[in-house]
Amino acid sequence: MPEHSTARPRPGRLVVTDVDSTFLTQEVIELIAEHAGTREQVAAVTERAMRGELDFADSLRERVATLAGVPVSALDAVREAVVLTPGAEELVAEVRRRGWEFGLVSGGFAEVLEPLATSLGITRWRANRLEAVDGVLTGRTTGPVVDRALKEATLRQWAAELGLSMADTVAVGDGANDLDMIDAAGIGIAFAAKPAVRERAPYSLDGPRLDAVLRIVDTVDARRPAADTHPS
User: Fold this and answer.
1) 21, 26, 83, 91: which could form a disulfide with 211 (CB 3.0–4.6 Å)?
2) Is 18 one of the catalytic residues?
3) Of residues 18, 147, 168, 174, which has the active-site annotation?
4) Domains present along the chain, CATH in parentheses
5) What is the DSSP string of 61-110?
6) Averaged pLDDT for residues 148-166
7) Which pLDDT band, with edges at 50, 70 and 90, does 224 fall under?
8) pTM of this structure
């Protein structure tokens, strides 16, 4: 390695959280649906999808279809309306202070997540994109749907990019769409989650603060054999 190499050291952990009802207190699609007059309908489908009663991709298509005709300008109001879960900003700050990596993976929408992530200095994020034509939403998304399989694949991809094993990853979420990444992570945490997710996740928190996940991580790390930990 050259003497003056700027290569970054390998972080000790990668922490990835879901966004809607985990990093944020709301479901973003419901905030958009408010502008379409379909919030109640969308909320009912969202609840069933998060309980695992509906295929996520099918439920997303059904819900997004109700957004057809909503002006793109309405997304400005949605971005203003989103509320961070208590402890979310503190979690990001502490993960960064420790030299770890943080990411967001969402079944919601890049149009809302991207500016939020940018404002918090988060560079690793993935979300669906809404299709728009002539300044209005078409009721469709573009690109691959961020479902439970893609969430897990994203966690694995980011870990590989960082040179981390899956044992060094932490995944946090609340709904059935998060189960695959929770199962795959070294530390999988259900946060204010649906019953089926709480039952399956290795660890569970009822809330209200998202940065409480670090107590679980620290407890697990205190038990890890020295050979399994990375030097700082």
Assistant:
1) 91
2) yes
3) 18
4) 14-223 (3.40.50.1000)
5) HHHHHTTTT-BTTHHHHHHHH--BPTTHHHHHHHHHHTT-EEEEEEEEEH
6) 98
7) confident
8) 0.92
